[in-house]
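Aim 2 progress update. The chain analyzed this quarter is reproduced below.
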Amino acid sequence: FQPIDPLLRLGCMQSSQQQIISHVQQWLHSGRAVWLCTIMKTWGSSPRPIGAMMACTMDGELVGSISGGCIEEDFLEQLRDGSLKTQYDGESKPFLVKYGVTAEEQARLKLPCGGQLHVLLEYIDSTKVNIDVFQRLAVDLENHNRVSRIVDLNNGVISAAAESSEDAVVIEGSRMTHSLSPMYRLLILGAGDVAKFVAEMAIALEYDVTLCDPRPNYLDNWHVPGVETTAQLPDDVVRERFSNPYSGIIALAHDPRVDDMALMEALKTNAFYIGAMGSIKTSAARRERLPELGLNDKEISRLHAPIGFQINSKTPAEIAIAVMAEVTAVRYQN
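Predicted structure tokens:
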């Protein structure tokens, strides 16, 4: 494997939720208390979805976003002048702040027309219990396991549970369940020009991207910042790291020795997306070959081939757009 810089991995290889949880865990571990803000409800044109988070230390170091800038500035101003602390009762009890309730406030905070946000603020001290909880959350997300953060709204006690909901935030009585999703991964097969554009777009869309090509010398001049590369056999890579619902496999080598080796393993997994580049004729020939690799009709039917939305383009960048558009559409259909 070609190693990548740890700081680059922290910034580019984690989803926004995972990045925030990791920062909170590190801050707590270093003895620093943290404010954690979570969007509970939205009305109208909300800039960020329910469940979005922002975390901040007492000295104003911030990660994440709940509005794209306007509310963050207001929050930091209240942190600086001490007015934020006056809303906190000193007993670790979370409290709700409603933004954009009046037209004057919407104008002051530059919120979209009619937009409102209800944000839960939690003051999280650096205790062993809190450190352990956020350590578990960070490890589960790193291991691509869904996990929920459970908050007792009466006393602020936080716990972690291996449970999740289709809804990002669920409130039952005084119990809030905040479902956290691990980062999605993409395995790209074939070190070529299309793969470069696909990888760049996938990084921008917050995927953890790996490029695999076992052919001699193919990786020598292929490099995209933030992308891990490997010359391992594709079926081994799929089996070891890309066999869960948060994984996608994109075969772009246009070489059966590479693509089919990955597909014969990928189509047996519950990866959310599996696609292969090629013409209609090439794709038909591939479907005829795959049964010889031990795949049945149901497994083969999961294959997206020809890959991507059909936009009648042949340039690498436009093909990459079509590929990532289809990957995105399939991801949100699941």
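The longest strand covers residues 34-43. Residues 316-333 form the longest helix (18 residues). These observations will guide the mutagenesis experiments scheduled for the next reporting period.
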